[in-house]
Each structure stands twice: as structure tokens, then as C-alpha cells.
Write a structure and sequence with these properties.
Order of helices and strands: HHEEEEHEEHEEEHEEHEHHHEHHEEEEE
Organism: Sphingomonas oligophenolica
Strand order of the largest sheet: 1-8-7-4-3
Oligomer: single chain
Pfam families: RNase_II_C_S1, RNB
Protein name: RNB domain-containing ribonuclease
Shape: globular
InterPro entries: NA-bd_OB-fold, RNase_II/R, RNase_II_C_S1, RNR_Ribonuclease
Largest sheet: 5 strands, mixed
Helix content: 25-40%
Number of helices: 11
Structural class: alpha+beta
Length: 461
Amino acid sequence: MKALIDPNNALSRGLAEIRTEYQVPAGFPADVLAAAEAAARRAPTEHRDRTAWPFVTLDPASSTDLDQAFTIDREGADLLLHYAIADVAWFVDDGGAIDGEAWRRGATLYLPDGRAGLYPPVLAEGAASLLPAGPRPAIIFTVRVAPDGGVRLDGAERAIIRSTAKLAYDSVKDSDLPPGFAELADRIAAAEDRRGASRVDPPEQEVDAVEGGGYALAFRPRLASEDRNAALSLATNLAIADALQAHHTGLFRVMAPPDEHAVQRLRHTAKAFGLIWPANETLAQYQLGLDAADPKQAAFMLAIRRAGAGASYVPFREGVVPWHAAMAATYAHATAPLRRLADRYVVRATLAIANGRPVPEVVTAAFSQLPGVMARADTLGGQVDRAVIDLAEAVMLQNCVGRGFPAIVTDVDDRGVRMQLRDLPVVARVAAQGVEPGDALQVVVSAVDPAHRMVSFQRAG
């Protein structure tokens, strides 16, 4: 997963094997690189000059593929979020070499030792990235945020912007940010609570060296700056989704809630971590009180994210309201076009409808084709994520053969018993008879093979 960090290169060999196994691209074809070099020199001609607006970016310190920049104004009781999104479509011709390669990839793949980008670095980390090195073409979405957190798209335009600062999550100060930043995030969070949204943002996982040798999975809790920044993207995506739905077009991100069986399994997982989940609280109610700074609660947040059937994309369908259960709203992806193919087309459609123009036919046609492409990209990303986590768990436990761990049964199915270790963020299977979900187990690590990303357990006694 993109959040897994490996500062000591404990996973290098295994990561190389994962890249080979899943055919992670190592670079770009020559014709794509040549087209990208030419596109990077393309001068904007359809953009208004907004270089005087005080845009900033806020990302991990090491990020160079910057999709978003923002500034905030106040109009009466409302806040106006001016959210600038990288104008990728300005550099990518429909049907050209860059476009074709992007359709083959679908999304950027992230591994601890680097990413396989959707677009060549000369664009994704250069001409199209909203870096403060100089003026950049962008699409500015203006989102009106009411005092109750309600959002509405007020406008969209192509513009030239100049980011005044590349801010980092771990070092940003309130004085660095536009006035109203925290207030806007609070409004969006309050609106989520009222809607009953069940979105969770687990902390990042890291692979840390431990004293005496070996490695351990650890959690890096999310920072307040990250959560507030995410609220800006959320507000924009919600406003865009509503606008697209109202104009009978678009591509939407949808997700069903965890079913009853998954929720029951989560209750057993909570028990495994020693968490108290009152019987009269729903999952949505309970997770609002989770604290990502607590390792056990952080691990449970990851379990919640993995419990659902997963999100997918659907095009507009007459008479159907697309719904994202975690957001408790109609939702779209528009704010990461450097990293997701679908966003480029959602941005183009929104720009058209906001200015009274018809959505380009090539965009409408793409909306029916993108769900399959993005599903394949999501599947590949999930497989790579799972392989990386399996590798990390094997590295973490390679010196633990014969060691016992307390666990709790979270599920019993036709493949056997699934358990959650009580003291580590590890879910695994073990052969055990006569147990039910919620039962406590003592298990022993029986074999570990980092080369094959495998850890085996057996029931103690």
C-alpha cells in the first residue's frame, strides 16, 4: 500500500519480486516519453490569469506529483474554497500515446520503494504538477461551503496559478495556511456527522527495525493537517458529484455498507484488541470515537476499511442515485487526475457543465468504459498492497518461529478459521476445530518464509 514505509530497506528483495510478479511497469515506452516531453512545452492559451491568488499546496514532504492547490475566501457566512486541480487534460491528447498508456495503467501504483506513475515524470512531477517552481495550468473549482457544511459548486475555470508555498503535513503551521482552513474542515466534519458518514482514515503503516534484530509493523497516526486537508478534497468531490448528477452525466464512486456478517466479524475483531464496542451502538456510531493514536484502535480502523465489499465506479444512470455508504452521499473522484485516470474525465465534464457547454462526446463515451478499466487498476493495486503487507508480516515475524501469540476467532467459513492476533495487526488462518467467532485462541508461529511472503500458525496445545 502506498502508506507502507520501509526506511531500512528490509523488504528490498521481496519488493523486486512483487514488481516482477505483478508486472509493475518500470518505466514508459519511448514514444510516450517523447510525447510527454513535447506536451510539457505546450503553452496554455485557454486559461485566465489567477497568479495573484495566494494558492498553497499541502502534501507529504516528499511528494512531487501535486494534484491540488487551494486558497479560501469568505463571503458573508459562507466560505469559498478555490480548489485548483492539475489540468492534466491540457497536456494529454485524446487517443495519443500518453492517453493510450494511461488507459493501460488506470492508476498510479505505490510501493514502499517507489511508485509506478500513471503519467511520465516530466508531466506528473513537472509541467502538470502544481509545484511552486513557476506558473502552472490548472482547473479552479470554486466550492461554496455553508455554515452547516453543505457544499455547492459555484464555478469552474481554466486558469494559470502560482503556488506560493509547498507545505508539508508534518511541519505546517496554522499561520502558513489560508484563513478559514480549520473552520472549513470543521464544517465538513460536522456535516459528515449529521449525515451519518462512516468514512475512516487509518494511520500509515511503517516497517521499523527493533532492538536486537528483526522488524515490526508500526502505525504512524494521521496528523490533524492531513485530516483537514482531506476535508477540502471531500468538499470538492461532493459538490462536483451533485452538479454532475443534476446535469444527468458523470462518473461516480459508489460503495455498499458492510453487511451484517462483516459487522459481526468486526465486533469479534474489536474484542480481539480489547476494545469496548457497546452492543447498542452501530458501526457508524462506534467508529466516530476511534483514536488513531492508539495502536489497537488504529489496527481496528484498518479492519473496518477492509470489511466492506469495496468501492467501484458507475456512470450516470437515469433514475438511479449513486450512493457511497461511507460518505453517506453521492460522491465522485475529481481531485487526483495525476494519479487516477477517471478523474481527468470527471474534471473535463465538470468544467463543461459549469460553463454551460455540452460534455465532450469523448468524455461521455469514456464514462461507460472507465468502470472496467478502474476496476482492473483497483484490483491490481489491491493485489500489490496485499502482497506488500504479506511480505512485511513475514519479515516482521521471521524470528518468531515457535513463539506463541494470543488471538481471537473473527470468522469461521468453509476455508477454516480466520483469526486476529491480539497484539499485532495481523489477520491469518489457522486449523482449529470446535471454535466459534469470538472465541479466544493461543497460536504458535509454525513457519515463516519471507521469500514466498508466507506465515503459518498452528493452535497451541
